Amino acid sequence: MSEQTADNATATSEEEIFEQKRVRLEKRERLNEDASLGGGAYPVVVPVTDTIQGVRARWGSLEETPGAESGAIVGVAGRVVFQRNTGKLCFASLQAGDGTRIQAMVSLAEVGEESLARYKELVDLGDHLFVSGEVIASRRGELSIMVQEWQVAAKALAPLPNMYAELNEETRVRQRYLDLIQREQARRNVVTRARTMASLRKTFADQDFIEVETPMLQTMHGGASARPFVTHSNAFDTELYLRIAPELYLKRAVVGGLDRVFEINRNFRNEGADSTHSPEFAMLEAYQSYTDYNGIADLTQALVQNAALAANVGTDREGTHVVEWADGTLFDLGGDWARISMYGTLSEAAGREITPETSVEELQAIADAEGVEVKLPNHGKLVEELWEHFVKDGLTRPTFVMDFPVETSPLTRHHRSIPGVVEKWDLYVRGFELATGYSELIDPVVQRERFVQQAAEAARGDDEAMSVDEEFLRALEHGMPPAGGMGMGMDRLLMALTGLGIRETILFPLVK
């Protein structure tokens, strides 16, 4: 089967894929059987001396002079993503992992008749290929390597998709490796995420935070209102829960004297999946002693804005907080972000005053009139659902929504001046919740009361409610200093920086 160009390398049926695999398996056998071809189809190592990126950086100027020669011999390896074989001269594009490409020219004059024939017979699109030769500019001015020696570095048995046709979303998600090979945006997402994580850690280090690790398997689920995944430990013969949040353990660390701690972790919530939710996701949580939810909001703004600076490195927006989303939209994360009242903005949008004293019956009547359904309604749940209905979609700039109902925030301190409200904010960016922050509840007596209330909610059928965590209460009884805390979804932070959905920001998302 011919594979001379990217176009006819597209497999459009199972029969074609099967036939290509059969042919490639035969080539694998030939490579393994013929010692003169190097180390077989999968050699332990090939004599690489340079990278494709390095060759381009050093000799890229040769392209200004078609036919120029450098006199330098290099050895590079990359994946064959384009191929054109003619009589005495073969061309191949070798692609590095970051998408950088260089042309390899395999000529009769340089490698001889036998080597050229073997190249044509054995090298396919998708193979990893090592070439050694002089760096030149082709007659058309393309930076190239005039090959003197070549060797298959890894034989691809499955054909590549058409490099000039867009993969559908299902393929991108299920076969992310193909997405990374083909699509610049996919590779950019990985780099942006890595730079973002490095930026977050640097911001924390600059402010004297310590990174810690907490258990992923827990005997009790807590730290958030969410349904957990349940598993079984054979060693302990007990049920365990996959972590829904690290909060209760990070607070134990603060009790122990670690005044500024953070963790970037994997959390698991046995709930729905959509454009902003994934059952498995990355979360940042941080706690800072002797501050409150205002101070932790300042920290969160700095974390996100520094991440935007990191994401913009190497772009025409470098040095600014203006990020460019995948669809070309520019979004400004700079400046000081607004802080608005949940009750105040809800009252304004609903056209009537709503306070912590507003009854459940009144709130339910408003919800019914607006067609807002609330499962197991109480005051707090109704207020939050109505706020989302009336206000959330109108937020465009990054905004801290301040002061939440006490019923929905069992781990948060009472507001210092407004009864029935806790000192909590949610940060909304692009219309979704990016982060949440608190003045932390440190009174073990009040915390026990909140846990008991949660247990009552669980008895009513709320499968997101928490249990009474005696071990955490014992820690609090030893004294936790005043503190602010925050949690931020890493996948959602990437959504804010790139404009993509959550399945695009997670390298390997869970799919059914």
What is the overall number of helices? 16
**Proportion in β-strands:** 15-25%
- Output the radius of gyration: 29 Å
Query: Main β-sheet: number of strands, strand sense, barrel status?
Result: 8 strands, mixed
The average pLDDT score comes to: 91
Low-confidence stretches: 1-11
Shape: elongated
Helical residue percent?
A: 25-40%
Strand order of the main beta sheet, please?
6-10-11-18-17-16-15-14
Extended strand count: 18
Distance between the termini: 34 Å
The helix/strand class is alpha+beta
List the defining traits of the structure above.
34% helix; aa-tRNA-synth_II/BPL/LPL; disordered N terminus; elongated; 512 residues; 8-stranded mixed sheet; alpha+beta; 5-stranded mixed beta barrel
Layout of secondary structure:
Blueprint: H1 14-33, H2 52-59, E1 69-85, E2 89-95, E3 101-107, H3 108-111, H4 113-122, E4 128-137, E5 143-154, H5 169-174, H6 176-182, H7 184-206, E6 210-211, E7 217-218, E8 230-233, E9 238-242, H8 247-255, E10 260-268, E11 280-289, H9 293-311, E12 322-324, E13 330-332, E14 338-341, H10 342-350, H11 360-370, H12 379-390, E15 399-405, E16 421-429, E17 432-439, H13 444-459, H14 470-476, E18 483-489, H15 490-498, H16 502-505
Parallel strand pairs: 3-5, 6-10, 14-15
Antiparallel strand pairs: 1-2, 1-4, 2-3, 4-5, 7-9, 8-9, 10-11, 11-18, 12-13, 15-16, 16-17, 17-18
Binding site for Mg(2+) 2: 433
EC number: 6.1.1.6
Keywords: Aminoacyl-tRNA synthetase, ATP-binding, Cytoplasm, Ligase, Magnesium, Metal-binding, Nucleotide-binding, Protein biosynthesis
